[in-house]
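ARCHIVE CARD
CATEGORY: sequence design from structure
SOURCE FIELD: tokenized fold
FIELD CONTENT:
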């Protein structure tokens, strides 16, 4: 059993892990590596949401699958998908299946993202519009505020927007699937909503990539503050968070993600999620371990 750390000791440990692990050369095999290959905001939005949505399983497998799927579209991903339409996107996609997701699921996701970018100008504009007072400005029937998350602190606004954004995105994906003539429902876990109490790790990972700006995260969304982000919590980071005392919640759900975020906010109120990438290295890379920083 690990010793209990004082708050000061925990802060020192978090900063040590951050300095050691929050480095560009440690990205591989993180799927953000695929997103960083693109240069424009539109391409990074599309690749980012696609890769984050497929972020199930081992990091290397995710990155390899995303590379194979997107490679045939060339360097100008967003323009290519929008020009091809749903049918052309399905025919161009370089992957027929990844885990739970069929080729139709993946093509519908790409085409749905393209539809939103076409109608709203960007995914950021669509995200911000979900809190607006003019339903349908960007997407018919989509611009409605999400639920209230009064216990979520500075992250409450982001979660409300996220819930509505997911509705917009799923509507666009279903429209794309219908254009393909698909009569099979999209995979139920293609995109999670905070409304269901899920940690929404993949969606929160996408938001981190888009909002934070440094050598790893791309800062494509200046309209959202890093202080609003929620920790992208998966089973590996949840285990580390439990060992460090960042949460006591035994399941990696939304409440646990918020507890971890609030615990980290003490050490960096403006950017609590900056610790995510470095902590995740302890679960992804064999050359880094929590045992390096704290005795078991």
């Amino acid at each position: 059993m690990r010793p209990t750390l004082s708050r000061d000791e925990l802060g020192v440990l978090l900063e040590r892990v951050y300095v050691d692990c929050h480095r560009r050369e440690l990205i591989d095999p993180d799927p953000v590596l695929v997103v960083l290959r693109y240069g424009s905001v539109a391409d990074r939005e599309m690749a980012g949401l696609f890769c984050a949505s497929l972020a199930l399983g081992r990091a290397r497998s995710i990155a390899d699958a995303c590379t194979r799927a997107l490679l045939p579209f060339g360097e100008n991903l967003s323009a290519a998908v929008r020009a091809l339409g749903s049918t052309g996107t399905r025919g161009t996609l370089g992957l027929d299946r990844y885990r739970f997701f069929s080729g139709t699921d993946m093509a519908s996701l790409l085409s749905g993202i393209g539809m939103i970018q076409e109608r709203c100008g960007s995914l950021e504009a669509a995200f911000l519009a979900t809190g607006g007072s003019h339903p349908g400005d960007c997407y018919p029937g989509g611009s409605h505020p999400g639920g209230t998350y009064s216990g979520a602190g500075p992250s409450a606004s982001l979660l409300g927007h996220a819930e509505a954004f997911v509705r917009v995105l799923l509507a666009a994906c279903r429209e794309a699937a219908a254009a393909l003539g698909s009569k099979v429902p999209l995979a139920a876990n293609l995109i999670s909503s905070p409304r269901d109490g899920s940690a929404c790790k993949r969606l929160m990972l996408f938001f981190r990539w888009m909002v934070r700006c440094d050598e790893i995260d791309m800062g494509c969304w200046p309209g959202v503050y890093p202080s609003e982000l929620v920790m992208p919590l998966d089973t590996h980071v949840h285990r580390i968070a439990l060992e460090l005392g960042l949460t006591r919640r035994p399941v990696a759900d939304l409440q646990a993600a918020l507890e971890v975020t609030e615990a980290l906010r003490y050490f960096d109120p403006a950017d609590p999620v900056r610790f995510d990438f470095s902590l995740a290295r302890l679960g992804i890379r064999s050359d880094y371990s929590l045992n390096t920083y704290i005795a078991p």
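CARD ANNOTATION: The chain has twelve helices and two strands. Residues 156-179 form the longest helix (24 residues).
SHELF: design records, drawer C
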